[in-house]
Input
Amino acid sequence: MALTITSRGRATLAWLLKTRDLWLAVGTGASTWPMPQPPPVADAAVGLVNPIGLVRLVAADFVRPVTTGGAFQTDDGSNWAYAAAGEDTAHLCLDFRLGPADLIDADALNGVREWQLVCDPELAPGVPPGQRVVPIANVVNFGRPLAIENTVPSYRAGVDEVRRYVITP
Output
C-alpha cells in the first residue's frame, strides 16, 4: 500500500528541510570531461567527482510560483515571489554565496563544474562554528545528498557569486 503525499504534506517536508543544516558542495569535475559542457549527472550519482569544499546556506525562504513579475526569476525562466508568513508552500528558495577569494586556488584552473546540495555534513574538529566556506581538507563526511548538478565552468576570480536554487520536496 502506498501513501500519497498531499500538497500540505509537501509544504511540511519543505519546512522540515529548511530546519536542516544545508550546504552546497562544490567541485571541479573530472579532468576528462569535455569543455565547456560537462556530461549529465548519472541517475545513480551520490557525490561529486572532484569536490573542493562546502559552502554554507546563507538564506532559505518559502516562495510560490507566479506567472509574471515576482521577486526573482530562475535560470529556466520561472518567476517566483516570496510567500507570505504562514502561507503553505512546498517551494523553498536556497541561496549560497561564494566570495571572490573562496576556494579560488582549487578552482582557478578548471573552474567550478559541479554542485551538490547536502544536509548535515560532518566537519573536522576545530572548524569554527558558523564558518561559511570549508575547504575539502576540513570535511569529514558530506552528509546526506539531496540534489546534484553539473554545469559549464564557473570561473570566479574576483567575482562574488550567489547560487540560487528553488526546490520542491
